[in-house]
Amino acid sequence: MRVQRWQVTKPRPKSKSKPEPPSKATPAPKHEEVQVRVRRWRVEDVPAIVECQRKAYDDYTSSGMYDARNYEMQLHAFPEGQFLAEIGGKVVGYATSLIVQLEDLPGAYEYDELTGSGTFSTHTPGGDTLYGADIAVDPAFRGEGVAGKLYIHRHKLLKKYNLRRMVAYGRITGYPEHAGKMTAAEYVAAVERGELRDPALNAHLKAGYRVKRVSLEIMHDAPSLNWATFLELENLEFNPQRRRIAAPPLRRPVRKLRVCAAQYLMRRVDDWDAFAASIRFFAEVADEYNGHFLVLPELVIAVLLPLAPRGCDEIEAFRFVATFAERYLELVRGLAREFNFYIVAGSIPVVTDGEMRNVSYLVSPTGHAYAQEKLHVTPGERSAWGIRPGEGLRVFDTPLGRVAIQICYDIEFPELSRMLGLAGAEVIFVPFSTDERKAYQRVRYASAARAIENCVYVVLAGNAGNLPARNYLLNYARSAVLTSSDFGFPDDAVIAEADPNVETVVVADLDLHALSVLRQDGTVRPLQDRRSDLYEVRAKVPVEIISVE
């Protein structure tokens, strides 16, 4: 059905709105043994659809009608959602729809905003709701089950795209006979209980809709005294988990993002200012290349180890570096605000309740910082630096996509990445620090496997160079951006990678829509084809979804 607006926010010309006509509102001659055929639109059908609209809405002015251009744009935006019904080659009905995301609306939403002024430019493939924009039947063919057959194809859309529900507005054309004696809401409730009949509402209830609310002045509809029902039809076959895998139901205007993965060259610095300048260099590069995310390496702050007081043992030296943690975080916050992008701040040693932990932060353009602790620590980290395992696993919900952080060794544990993938993560950032090639290859090969297993992008950022500090003397890195291995992705499943052991930045564009296609229709589908009858990965502590400000 088509209406002027989602909720009333300001007066608008009512002649523009159009309610969804009932399939059985007007008695019509019966056509014996007619064969109703429903199919998708073709461009050459548009003139007949315009004519069918004119007959179905004969009480509307021309300004309230769509022209051929509107229907052509609707067809172009979402061809799978536009159906027509024909009898003997004659178009006798049609239904239009688009996919939208309506959860957590910030306020009133007008019809033009919802449908792009009838162009369906607002069609959102990643949405979870089918909006039944319009359904109309030629009055001469009402009573032939035309609307019912159109609804069957709408139901198929819900199943095909695994959508949560279908919504629409509806008329209550029988209400004027009872106005004054009962409110519109009381009238609708009586129809739902079967005490009264309404030609429009009963048709909608028969189609499976449920009334969510009754509103006045949503649309101009004199036979309903300008009252309308907001209708919802739930998809009983909706699979929430598959929905998270195929296309996380998030409202966001962007489905591509650019990442800049730093490869930091360890060397002696004279003081904090020199270190801060080296970090700013990477922020300036990311800004120059219009990055959305800058990823820094694990323990990049270890470059300050040579500044520790003489006579410190290794654990004491790391605790000295940890004293710069807050200062470093403020540096990164300032850079994120200044350049207006996200920064994965590598990781830093942080003392928590007397324990040393290795902690990464996602810092937003507003300067908010969100922590992800390293959950698995190597034997060397335990003995040499006194680092202890952290807690919690998080997915960060940003306007650009859902991202997660696994620090170095954590990526070698497939259970973590699987839980993140099932929680909707689309990109996993891996800040790492390895001393030689064999150690690096463990991280690299594990990251490649995680990308394929979970249909995610994996972004590695590491340290290179030499540092005059015990247990940090050598560093080997080759920062890279890894993908799944399927059509639509690079042949070697690598978007970009750095030359080894030089200071540089790897820049790559990530197409999140391609991930959605891969998860739903890929040559192989590792997330969908899991054998839950044989095994499962179950989180003892649930993955936390963090909404990033």
Task: Kindly summarize this structure in a few lines.
With 549 residues, the protein is an alpha/beta fold. It has helices spanning 46-56, 68-77, 111-115, 146-160, 184-193, 199-206, 240-246, 272-288, 314-322, 325-339, 379-385, 414-422, 437-454, 512-521; strands spanning 36-40, 83-87, 90-100, 129-137, 165-170, 210-216, 227-234, 256-266, 293-295, 342-344, 348-352, 355-363, 369-373, 394-398, 401-405, 427-432, 457-466, 474-475, 480-482, 494-497, 504-511, 544-547.
Largest sheet: 15 strands, mixed
Class from secondary-structure proportions: alpha/beta
CATH architecture of the largest domain, please? 4-Layer Sandwich
Tally of discrete structural domains: 2
- Shape summary: elongated
SSE arrangement:
Blueprint: E1 36-40, H1 46-56, H2 68-77, E2 83-87, E3 90-100, H3 111-115, E4 129-137, H4 146-160, E5 165-170, H5 184-193, H6 199-206, E6 210-216, E7 227-234, H7 240-246, E8 256-266, H8 272-288, E9 293-295, H9 314-322, H10 325-339, E10 342-344, E11 348-352, E12 355-363, E13 369-373, H11 379-385, E14 394-398, E15 401-405, H12 414-422, E16 427-432, H13 437-454, E17 457-466, E18 474-475, E19 480-482, E20 494-497, E21 504-511, H14 512-521, E22 544-547
Parallel strand pairs: 4-5, 8-9, 8-17, 9-10, 14-22, 15-16, 16-17
Antiparallel strand pairs: 1-2, 2-3, 3-4, 5-7, 6-7, 8-21, 10-12, 11-12, 12-13, 14-15, 17-18, 17-19, 19-20
Helix pairs in contact: 8-10, 12-13
